[in-house]
């Protein structure tokens, strides 16, 4: 047994081999050495841990092993030897565009390790001494860290799958300040602008310099925009500035060994400075060979002396007239409340759109890829797809979709317009709860995770204060919506309910819960569709609790009015059950959004349409119309009970007449909007009834086949779809028996929809494809599409006298040229053959 345990030592000759050739088969030696191991015995090493053992069975299998083809990984020195620092402006432009494309791939759902960090310069920014790449990489690194911190703060980091800590490679890195990074990029913009002006005899070279300037300005303006719209603690996370030493946190300069690390960094900096000086000297020499060296030197000196921070017109690309506003604020005032600067953000957004359009137009100036296919950009010197493979755990390789440079430029252009919309419309959308809800809903449909997270932080920078306003929280839009449409007595200063302590306490409890719900729903719009739907399920459960607190408030209101002899019956209150109606109206709006997300995600199948559209048309829409009509009734009652609006206008003072005019104008505007909303709901109800009836017809005609299981399986599917409404109570909590009893059109469907039945009878549905088509803009309004099947007709039986063609098909196979038999020329030829 002792000899068997010593058997693994025979592996030493294999381990002494310096290297193994790629593809060398060592299976025989491996299995021979395994014979010396007992069952359950493992061989381990310092560099070979349990997670490597778990994946060793699938080693070097591309579908299972993430580390395939990662024996030699490119580093910065190898990239420099391959020409990274060469005086090749088209190559430099291609690298900049490829880096921006990798950011797009990351924001669209791939991990940082397989996209952005594949640019090895971004991992070694301090070692990059190239005059163009160093400031650009500093800016990209800061931008990526800011975006990552923003998305993490909002709570949407789950949408960006990471196999490892994305900042792990920067734990010992001390970053430059934001102001320094932006100033570096602006200085380089000035240098490139001056160099480009000396290339008057080479228009293409001038265009390339102009394009590189636009990339620098684009990144710097994104950083400035982040500084204006995002709080400092989110926008500048300062990764890597502290180290965890046991249970305490110290600065980098305070931990043991910091001096040695600093000395090593200084030596590396000197080494790279010497390399950078040689690169710059080579660039100057080659410029001098093309243009007058004096002109280049003069242009560089002018650019460095001007220190323009974007105010100069770089080839017609007008920069902003303000200097960088991103200097670190040393104000230690604890009462400081951050407020997004939308006014200056509008200027930046306009400029970013111009730059994004220019980037889109100048992508073609960069170095072309082999076969014109960008791929993962491994053909560019600084990109290594396996750069972070050693930090990725043993997992299945994930598919990474990297857009081309042209696609990424188009993405950034659309992002710029979306950013402008966010900055322009967000401040105007905070008037009431209705505007906030529908703006965020519409904006989030076509927004990416970056702009969706940015909207959340702009609306609530620190806490529940809207737009960072010290005097406005989310409760203010709620109260405005409640007061405008439902007029509760507790908000009327002349009502006795307003002065009652118990009523005020009940109202404060109700408002507190409603505020939490509003933040939850608004925060859901920062997520993707799937997470939005999950959060709406939680919101539907919360709103049932709010309904209880609204009932307490209404009961206390009725008690005060009845005890004070203000009314004889509770229903005489002009805002009777107004708060409950307000809560129920919002519940119905959330319900419709919940089903709309299901349609957008394509969760429902055609045989589920009957009970889904039955619920939407029979319950959700009808109750929505009821809440709208009740709101109109309350507003009219309040108008008639107002002393200013009572009686003739002749007895009113000029001030009272002006007040009455304002009340009437606002009321007429709300009534017009009310009529539109009611008409929309009625139209939606009719649409739901039509889709419900048509779905039943198609199921009866066996066009849409029901799955096996019968009525019991159908009941389980019904209960699963409406499970979220179980705790809401009547009328949204429905049962399968209720659905069968109320949907009486199932029995008389042929009489109720004679036109549709007659139309379907004229069609041979067996030879046609019948399906519901969903419009991305209006997913809840499907269109019934009936189109012929692309199936060739059955071949006619061959006549005895007919000649068998040489290329005859196999029995049961489809003819190869079946469509040609239907064409007019073929028919004429066949007819002439028969006559002959």
Could you tell me the number of beta strands?
Answer: 6
User: What is the average of the pLDDT values?
Assistant: 76
What's the helix count?
Answer: 28
**How are the strands of the largest sheet arranged?**
1-2
End-to-end gap: 96 Å
Main β-sheet description? 2 strands, antiparallel
The helix-and-strand class reads: mainly alpha
The stretches of 5 or more residues where confidence is low (pLDDT under 50) are 1-21, 239-258, 287-300, 302-335, 745-752, 792-836
In angstroms, what is the radius of gyration? 35 Å
Strand proportion: under 5%
Shape annotation: globular
Layout of SSEs?
Layout: H1 2-5, H2 12-15, H3 27-34, H4 50-54, H5 76-81, H6 89-107, H7 120-123, H8 133-154, H9 178-197, H10 203-229, H11 232-235, E1 242-245, E2 248-251, H12 258-290, H13 293-306, E3 313-314, E4 317-318, H14 342-362, H15 405-425, H16 433-445, H17 449-459, H18 475-485, H19 501-524, H20 529-563, H21 578-600, H22 609-641, H23 654-700, H24 710-721, H25 736-742, H26 749-752, H27 754-761, E5 768-773, E6 783-788, H28 824-835
Antiparallel strand pairs: 1-2, 3-4, 5-6
Helix pairs in contact: 6-8, 6-10, 6-15, 8-9, 8-10, 8-17, 9-10, 9-13, 10-14, 12-13, 14-15, 19-20, 20-21, 21-22, 22-23
How would you describe what is shown here?
The structure is a single chain. This protein is mainly α and 836 residues long. It has a domain at 63-239 and 337-390 and 400-428. It is built from 28 helices and 6 strands. It has helices at 2-5, 12-15, 27-34, 50-54, 76-81, 89-107, 120-123, 133-154, 178-197, 203-229, 232-235, 258-290, 293-306, 342-362, 405-425, 433-445, 449-459, 475-485, 501-524, 529-563, 578-600, 609-641, 654-700, 710-721, 736-742, 749-752, 754-761, 824-835, and strands spanning 242-245, 248-251, 313-314, 317-318, 768-773, 783-788. It has a two-stranded antiparallel ribbon. The chain has a two-stranded antiparallel ribbon with strand order 3-4. Strand 3 and strand 4 (317-318) form a beta hairpin. The longest helix is centred in the last third of the chain and has 47 residues, at 654-700. The protein is globular. Mean pLDDT is 76; it is low at 1-21, 239-258, 287-300, 302-335, 745-752 and 792-836.
